[in-house]
Design goal:
about 100 residues; alpha/beta; single chain; 5-stranded mixed beta sheet; two-stranded antiparallel ribbon; Nucleotidyltransferase, domain 5
């Protein structure tokens, strides 16, 4: 997926459930819920700014998988902002869940 803003251009890799890499550890997945007005990690309200600090304790082996669920009101830019923030967390792979 390509993303751009007025000041930057970048590429974001997407993996959807079923298309991603297999789990590499016994650590349970981290559930991320994104809406237009909020962000939750394992049902706890967080911000993009506190996301890294929230995820680190959930990765005891130094790696984990995040499953991302988006609300119908989420824009492509909001999802891209989240994916860029998650890309900055070493050892974390992210999968975007798609409705069936």
């Amino acid at each position: 997926m390509l993303s751009s803003t007025f000041s930057q251009f970048s590429e974001v890799d997407l993996a959807t459930a079923g298309a991603g890499r297999p789990a590499t550890s016994e650590t349970p997945p981290i559930f991320v819920q994104l809406s237009a007005g909020g962000l939750r990690v394992n049902a706890r309200e967080v911000t993009l700014e506190t996301l890294r600090d929230t995820l680190t304790p959930l990765m005891p082996e130094g790696r984990a998988r995040a499953l991302i669920s988006t609300g119908g009101d989420v824009t492509a830019q909001r999802l891209t902002d989240l994916l860029l923030a998650l890309r900055g967390v070493a050892g974390l792979s992210a999968q975007v869940l798609t409705p069936s």
